[in-house]
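During the no-cost extension, the postdoctoral fellow (Dr. R.K.) reprocessed legacy sequence entries with the updated structure-token encoder. One reprocessed record is reproduced below for audit purposes.
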Amino acid sequence: MTEPLVSIIIPAYNSEKYIADTLRSVITQTYANIEVIVVDDASTDATLQVVEGMNIKRPISIIKKEKNSGAAASRNMGYKQSEGSLVKFLDADDLIGPEMIANQVALVENDSCIVSAQWGRFKINDISTFKLNPEECWQTMPSLEWICSSWKNTQPMTNPGIFLIPKKLIEKAGLWDENLSLLDDTEYFTRTILCAEKVIFSSTSTLYYRSGINGLSTLNTRKGIESAYMATEKAANALINKQDDDRTRLLCANLWQSFVHWIYPAQDDLITKAEQKIKNYGGSSLKFKSGGYSKILQSVVGWRLMKKIKFWYR
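Re-encoded structure tokens follow.
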């Protein structure tokens, strides 16, 4: 039986420090039938030269963009040139375990399921700091139940490299929203997973998530926060359209409350809109989480004034 072709699509922007490690983790996979597509998003560093200069046996297709247009657009461009019946989107600074593709492919049942994996963080270049980050959703379950489980802590982990997706399911769910920069993965995978029948968990497949680098240039900018707002709105709507009941409404309200906790006290207009959505969903049960001196200050003056004080003195 012929092994299905797996397309691994890697958007890259100014990733010269990390992309070689990422590609090595891909080309050393025990699974043979893969195609690797790197989309250079008009990098201004040596990303392109690093990729072109790698001495590797497996061919890498390189798409060179003349204008920077973001990760979502790069993923879409790579996808349109892919030929695999199974697709993995992988960030240019993350790593995958050597048997990840083989183990995930072995679990694919049909074109209506997504295969997920375990994941953990490591600090910058020190893989010895890697620790798994177990989640309740690390199990096989229907797609709606997976989303509800993933959303319980209001910070769903939807790093693209976790998932292996049938191309036919992508065609059904649609491509990445190129208007989004921040939380584009939350929106995309909420929508895509809810189009699937179920999520199958591979306990022997691992994504190594590199943390401690400044990868989100849009974080805390107006553009970034607007993207997060739109992504949260689209994700919440996708869940409610799938099932509208007390449980899903509370999950959506808590997701919006998490958004408010994050941006407060800036962006008054978006806070007002988000709080109205929380009210429309019936209210939130989410408590503000803090640690260290912030937790002490919060216990005295409340989370809103605590955040204002930190905002004034940052």
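The chain has two domains: 6-211, 222-289. The mean pLDDT is 95. The remaining legacy entries will be reprocessed before the final report is submitted.
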